[in-house]
Amino acid sequence: MNIFIKDIQKTYGNLKVLNRINIEFKDKDFSTLLGPSGCGKTTLLRIIAGLETPDAGEIYFGDKCVFSKEKKINVASNKRKLGMVFQDFALWPHMTVFENIAFPLKAKGKKENIKEKVFSALKTVRLENLYARYPSELSGGQQQRVAFARAIIDNPEVILFDEPLSALDANLRDEMRFELTTLVKDIGITVIYVTHDQIEAMSMSNKVIVMNKGNILQSDSPEVIYKNPINTFVAQFVGKSNVLKDGIIRPENISLTKLENSTEYEGSVESVSYMGSFYELSVKISSLGLWKIYSNERKAAGEKLKLYIRNSDIHILGGIANV
Ligand SMILES: Nc1ncnc2c1ncn2[C@@H]1O[C@H](COP(=O)(O)OP(=O)(O)OP(=O)(O)O)[C@@H](O)[C@H]1O
Ligand SMILES: [Mg+2]
């Protein structure tokens, strides 16, 4: 199901949190709202969910208008056919895994085949054996899967995630990233995912929507966002970048050995961080400030380096954003 957001605005007191947001989430796409803390991601997600009322604009789920300020339409959240997974999982501690997952069905009075439906959802998330446990008896990753099973139990057409992995430790987060992507692909569902983590956004989504201060800056595939960022904010938010006069260059495109058709720069090493498979260097280029570059060998602070950049690797900023 496609979701259209038209001219959505939201203000809290004097604070403009969303500034005329226009965006389309395509059927079965994994779309991610990416932006810094406070930029309005959760507010937009809650507005789509019907948990927050915008000041102006319209929202369509497919052909159906679920919100219109002008037409005075506001379809209740539980009638919007969506599942939600939040950062803290929000599982009920006094209910077992089975009861937690069954809850949305019971709340809507859908009493038929509850057992079959719950076990089918448990099978999807591979937790059939843990149905009688309480949330406190589960690991973080298992709790996350229960939250996911609960979100899909009533066959939603869209699933909304708000930073669902941020409470997990780094290793588990990597694992769950992969698992969540596989699960939603298997079910074949439209996903709107919120995060401030660029790796999460780039690795999971087929569409990334970069927000800042209540505005959408750019909306495109992860590859286009990375290779053709519209401005320095987007460039720096989706990866490391070095600013040149006419654009930006990613660290991985700066070479310490001479390249054909390249421009040479001189710099001196300010600091060195060992990253496991490579070294990240901060190199001072006299007229251009500090650059981040990658090296296979350790370099010493103060060491003089020659750097080579191909013009074709410079990303010119200010292309047309495909919002
Ligand atoms: N109910 C509310 N009342 C007043 N201000 C609010 C309310 N909810 C959110 N805000 C403000 O709106 C702005 C956007 O908040 P929002 O929660 O949408 O940000 P976010 O992008 O999700 O940030 P984070 O990454 O920290 O979760 C913030 O400045 C926040 O303080
Ligand atoms: Mg938030």
UniProtKB/TrEMBL annotation:
Residue ranges annotated for the ABC transporter domain, each copy included: 3-238
Keyword Translocase carried by entry: yes
Top-level taxonomic group: Bacteria
Keywords tagged on the record: ATP-binding, Cell membrane, Membrane, Nucleotide-binding, Translocase, Transport
Chain segments annotated as transmembrane: none
MF terms (GO), sorted A to Z: ATP binding
Pfam families: ABC_tran, TOBE_2
Entry-linked Gene3D superfamilies: 2.40.50.100, P-loop containing nucleotide triphosphate hydrolases
Name the record gives this protein: ABC transporter ATP-binding protein
Species this chain originates from: Clostridium neuense
Taxonomic lineage of the native organism: Bacteria, Bacillati, Bacillota, Clostridia, Eubacteriales
